[in-house]
Amino acid sequence: MRCPVLAAIPLLLAGCESEVPENPPCGVEHGVFLDTPDGAVIHLHRHQADGPPVLVVHGISSNHYCWDLDAERSIGSYLAAHGFDTWLLDLRGHGDARTAPGGKNLERRWTADDYGLGDIPTAVAYIQQQTGHIKLGYVGHSLGGMVGAIYASQVGDDALWAMVVVGSPAEFTDPDPILELTRHTFGLSGATLPFILTPSLARVANTFNDRLPIDIEAYLYNDANMEADAARRMMHTVVSPLWPGEMLQFASMIGEGNFQSGDGAQDYISAMGGITVPVLAIAGRADRVAPPDRVRGYYEAVGSQHKRFVVAGLENGFAADYGHLDLPIGDHAPDEIYPLIEGWLREHALPGQGVQGR
User: Fold this and answer.
1) Rounded to whole angstroms, what are the CA distances from 340 to 281, 286, 296, 337?
2) Looking at the predicted structure, is the pLDDT value of residue 90 above 90?
3) Is there a domain that residue 355 lies in?
4) Which domain holds residue 187?
5) Which residues contact 322 (CB under 8 A, 6 or more apart)?
6) For position 74, what pLDDT does the model report?
7) Does the residue 41 lie in any domain?
8) Residues paired with residue 53 on neighbouring β-strands, in sequence order
9) Which residue has the higher pLDDT, 83 or 108?
10) Is position 328 within any domain?
11) Considering the domain boundaries, does residue 1 fall inside one?
12) Which of 102, 138, 234, 290 has its CA 20 to 30 A from that of 276?
């Protein structure tokens, strides 16, 4: 029996990307690099439809393929088929934005604050300009949901009509041993390393997991909800490096037990009370990276009158107890998670937005 050695924590939030993904996304009709006001580079991928736009954001050490693994496991294709003009974002230093012109030469100490205050406003403004729509829907996985909270609470939620966050924590009190070791590991790594090359680590984990004393993949997803070939492609496609600013910010948040800015000056949990758009928060029952109680903290923090908290697990009628990465691309996600997301967006779409599709 393998021992869950906690020293593997840098991989808990990892998957892996290859320089040329093995599974190009289906239905993408447009891709564009955008410069942020502070000189970073982001990238948007579009699954075009005639209805209102939706911005979809990945999590830490990840990229847009976590929502767009293949034709079946693609929130972009799913939402577009249901009438939503869907834009998948690669944050600075992630996915296609990592190898963007100048992307490898940028200062790498960016934090979630930079994503929420720089990358998201840049993406929102571009989508508004391209589509003519003033308001967008927002979908974020893990850190993507936290970045959405930073944007909505600090820049404002006037440009949003609804939000969906999936496996996004916002509560760090009473850290368990895994979270506590994350704090120490991220603190040390963020202070001493230029980055953690999680893509290479994930490839090793995927290739040799059965021979390792640590079942690394079990921390990332529920293998009962991820068939082997999809898991292999995921571990070779869905991640970017961990950056020092991210790690130091998370180490600080865990240490303080609070969702806060990198410099500790802004309490995002308190600020989230000003978020008024409808919010759906989805947690995975078997998620070891962002357990349900930590996602519930997000749900409880937002001030929205219309909000809902869902735990995706067997006890609630789901086909599996969802882990972290199978929430966006697990075997049953297209039949269970995607309809939840689409239904929330459709329910709260503004009058006259003309949502069509099947």
Assistant:
1) 10, 18, 17, 5
2) yes
3) no
4) 6-348
5) 222, 225, 284, 285, 286, 287, 312, 313, 330, 333, 337
6) 97
7) yes
8) 85
9) 83
10) yes
11) no
12) 290
d(CA 82, CA 225): 24
* CATH code, domain carrying 43: 3.40.50.1820
Q: What is the pLDDT of residue 179?
A: 83
Spatial separation of the C-alpha atoms in residues 68 and 64, rounded to whole Å = 6
Residue 284 contacts residue 247 (beta carbons within 8 Å): no
> What's the confidence (pLDDT) of residue 203?
52
Considering only 16-25, 83-92, 106-115, 295-304, which range has the smallest mean pLDDT? 16-25
What Cα–Cα distance (Å) separates residue 327 from each residue in 38, 112, 168, 170, 358? 32, 21, 11, 17, 23
Mean pLDDT of the chain: 85
Tell me how far apart the alpha carbons of residues 319 and 299 are, in angstroms, rounded to a whole number.
Answer: 23
- Tell me the C-alpha distance between 116 and 148, whole Å: 6
Closest CA to 286 of 220, 349, 338: 220
What is the rounded CA–CA span in Å between residue 21 and residue 236?
Answer: 8
Cβ atoms 218, 37 nearer than 8 A: no
Do residues 100 and 43 touch, judged by C-beta distance below 8 A?
A: yes
Kindly report, residue by residue over 262-286, the tens digit of the pLDDT: 999 999 999 999 999 999 999 999 9
The number of distinct structural domains making up the chain is 1
Q: Tell me the one-letter amino acid at 85.
A: D
What does the alpha-carbon distance between residue 71 and residue 55 come to, in Å, rounded to a whole number?
A: 19
Is the distance from CB of 96 to CB of 31 less than 8 angstroms? yes
